[in-house]
Each structure stands twice: as C-alpha cells, then as structure tokens.
C-alpha cells in the first residue's frame, strides 16, 4: 500500500510528498518552504536516517515506522504557532483510536490512570500507550518573507520497532499487538489533522484545543518531576495554562508554570531523574 491522503485532507487542499527513505522529513519540509512552497504539504516516509527529537536528541525511524511532517505556513504569531504541537498530539491520538482495534491497547501509566484513553498525551510532545512512549512530536520553524513563519510539525511513530536503549519506557504498535502499518496510520492521521486544525483555527480556538488535550493528559493530578536546565522540580501536575504551559503545585504549595522541561511521572518522579 502506498501513502495517500484522506479524501477530507485532499479536498481541503493538502498535498503529499512521499519517500521510501529520507534524511529528515522536517528538514525537507523547511527546504520546501524556503523554496516558496505555500504550506499544507505532508512529507512522509517509512524510514528516516537523521531524524531529530527535542533538544537535538536522535529520533530513529527504522524501516516500517512512520515519519511524517506537515508544513504549515502562517501569519499567526510564533507563540501561537508553537501550540501546533498540541494539535498534532490530538490528531495522532484520534488517528490511533481510529485504526487500532479496541481492546488491543491498555493504558498502564506509572503513577496511575483511570484507563479512559488508550492513548494518552504527555506534555509537551509525546504520545503514550501502556505507559510507554509510542510517538514523539517536534516543531521546527523558519522565518519567511512577508512576516510569515514556516512551521514543520514533525510526527514520529514507532509502528513496527522501538529503541531499547532509552532512559524511559518505549513501545511500538507491533509490540502492543496492533496490526497497523505506517500507510494506514498516515491515512487516518491526515484526516484527523484536518478536524483538529479547524478547531485550532490559527490559534483562535486554542482554548478548545487545551480542553481536548487535558481530557487525554497523562498523569494529570499525579506526582510529577520536571527537569529544567539540570534542576528538578517536584509536585502535582495540576493543568496546562491558556498558553499550554505546564502547571504544577510543588510540595510547599506554590504554583509553578513551566514553559520547557522533561517530565517524569509516578514512581519515577519520586526517584532521582
């Protein structure tokens, strides 16, 4: 099966550039933007040789996994454009719900979960299944002429394989018993993106995105540790604020708002992280 767009996405003017293998779908998308592409372009591949995660970390995409980047060209201020990562998380979770049979995935997040979501969203950019990282999202941007921004919304999903040498649990759809290939997942993702992007509405619908995101949030109300520039802050995960920043109440009762950091839940939050 070849990669293809959902009919809803094609009817809304989205386009597709598919590859057997690439260096980085994000890098390719930004190259297209600098060359004048107007956006609404999906760049996808089942193999990526030089993918990146947050803070320059390597994100491996072996053959059969999904590397997908949507190029968004927008006049929205960069602060709002940065919240597209939350749109991406919702779209991917919706797509996974659509293509993975019910009963295949059981959430077991360290720290507790009521099990209402098979796929949960971990702030700021991960999708979890059974408490382990299934997917990561990375936004990269470039300034264009005319006060516009190009935003590469990169989405990497462990479909058939996952890395074993990580400091946190990871998994793949295959390891969880879900028979879904990268092409099928992308088809559902391109459909789910359209719905969630309409909700976001160039940032005007961010409050609605925030509500939807919180309904899928991993670890909400539980113990959390956040590593910020080498320091660790511990407390209770209370919410994300109107700008989608992480809000915790520390052990002394103070409320802290965090714009960037590495989050750990449950028993891991009580240990050294």
Automatic annotation (TrEMBL):
It is an enzyme of class 6 (ligase). Its EC number is 6.3.4.15. Residues 15-201 form the BPL/LPL catalytic domain. One of its GO terms (molecular function) is ATP binding. It comes from the Bacteria. CDD domains: BPL. InterPro entries: aa-tRNA-synth_II/BPL/LPL, Biotin_CoA_COase_ligase, BPL_C, BPL_LPL_catalytic, Transcriptional_repressor_C. It catalyses: biotin + L-lysyl-[protein] + ATP = N(6)-biotinyl-L-lysyl-[protein] + AMP + diphosphate + H(+). Coiled coil: none annotated. It holds the Pfam family BPL_C. Keywords: ATP-binding, Biotin, Ligase, Nucleotide-binding. One of its GO terms (cellular component) is cytoplasm. The keyword Ligase applies. NCBIfam families: birA_ligase. This is biotin--[biotin carboxyl-carrier protein] ligase. The lineage of its organism: Bacteria, Pseudomonadati, Pseudomonadota, Alphaproteobacteria, Hyphomicrobiales. The gene is birA.
């Amino acid at each position: 099966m070849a990669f293809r767009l959902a009919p809803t996405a094609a009817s809304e003017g989205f386009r597709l550039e598919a590859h057997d293998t690439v260096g980085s779908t994000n890098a390719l998308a930004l190259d297209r933007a600098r060359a004048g592409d107007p956006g609404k372009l999906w760049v996808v591949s089942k193999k990526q040789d030089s993918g990146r995660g947050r803070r320059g970390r390597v994100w491996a995409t072996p053959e059969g996994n999904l590397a997908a980047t949507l190029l968004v060209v927008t006049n929205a201020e960069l602060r709002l454009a940065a919240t597209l990562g939350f749109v991406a998380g919702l779209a991917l979770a919706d797509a996974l719900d659509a293509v993975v049979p019910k009963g295949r995935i059981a959430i077991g997040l360290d720290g507790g979960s009521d099990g209402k979501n098979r796929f949960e969203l971990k702030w700021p950019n991960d999708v979890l299944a059974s408490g382990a990282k299934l997917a990561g999202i990375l936004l990269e941007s470039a300034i264009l002429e005319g006060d516009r921004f190009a935003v590469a919304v990169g989405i990497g999903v462990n479909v058939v394989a996952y890395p074993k040498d990580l400091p946190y649990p990871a998994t793949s759809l295959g390891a969880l018993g879900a028979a879904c290939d990268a092409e099928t997942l992308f088809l559902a993702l391109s459909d789910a993106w359209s719905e969630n992007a309409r909700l976001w509405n160039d940032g005007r619908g961010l409050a609605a995105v925030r509500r939807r995101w919180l309904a899928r949030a991993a670890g909400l109300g539980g113990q959390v540790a956040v590593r910020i520039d080498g320091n660790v802050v511990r407390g209770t995960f209370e919410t994300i604020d109107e700008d989608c920043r992480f809000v915790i109440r520390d052990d002394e009762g103070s409320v802290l708002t965090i714009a960037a950091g590495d989050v750990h839940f449950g028993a891991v939050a009580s240990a050294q992280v």
